[in-house]
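Entry 12.
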Amino acid sequence: MCTYQLIWKGVQQTTQKYYEPLNIGRIILSDKKQKIYGIIIQSKIEQGVLRKIAELAEKLGVIVRYIQISMPKAYEPTVTAITFIDFSNSETTPEKALELVKNQKFIKKAQIIKPNRDGIIYDSYFFPLIAEDERAVIFRKSVYEALFNGVRRKFGSAGEAMLYYEGFAIGFEIYDKYVKTANSENLEDIVEVAKAVNMTLGWGIIGKIKIDAEKGMARVRIHQNFECELSENNGKPYSQFYRGAIAGLFTRFFKKDVKVQEIKCIAKGDPYCEFTIKSL
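Predicted 3D structure (tokens):
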């Protein structure tokens, strides 16, 4: 459980939420007894579509193992999705099921994805990945762990400085993106965008935030900071990249250079990472 607390103009807002991990791999490994296929669907956006798809799956005797919809614009009339369907206990072939899907009035386009001979089926249709109208690349932990910890091991304190300034450059530039997305330079709006982006992209969960714009001071709490999870119980704060990103963002917001310190860190046994920001 994480507690979000935003203190703005003396008003404290607190909500509690429970979280579960989201697997976005879009890859399924099946054994020889299973018969799983993928179907790409382009559908009209109208009331009752999901119900009709569920009814069709029941009619065919198949199990929908996974479905993911590509995020449409609010005004777009159609939506595209990938679904992995289990035909193991169905008398209908994937090819016949595809024809039935195509014959539905709300379906604009449909095509099938077949598993390879090793029982691996993956999304071979959608590419590249997009987040907020920009291409996105996903690094699994084994990759970014090798990247971040490799820099630290190879270059020591110079590597940590490198990570900090890379993070700073990102935070400095991403401020404009947050303002554009929020369509506002209002602090509350920017905070909400930052919370949304950090959580949906897997960087961390922004929790308690306290900002005093007049004094140029702030305190930010991050739960499950992806960088600091790479080191456990090392007795000292571990964040360089994330700390730099916070510094770059607040440099833009306060319009002054800032000093960012990590006063609590999961790498030294604290339940969360907490950063203090002070303008210079």
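Annotation: The first strand starts at residue 2 and ends at 8. The longest helix spans residues 157-182.
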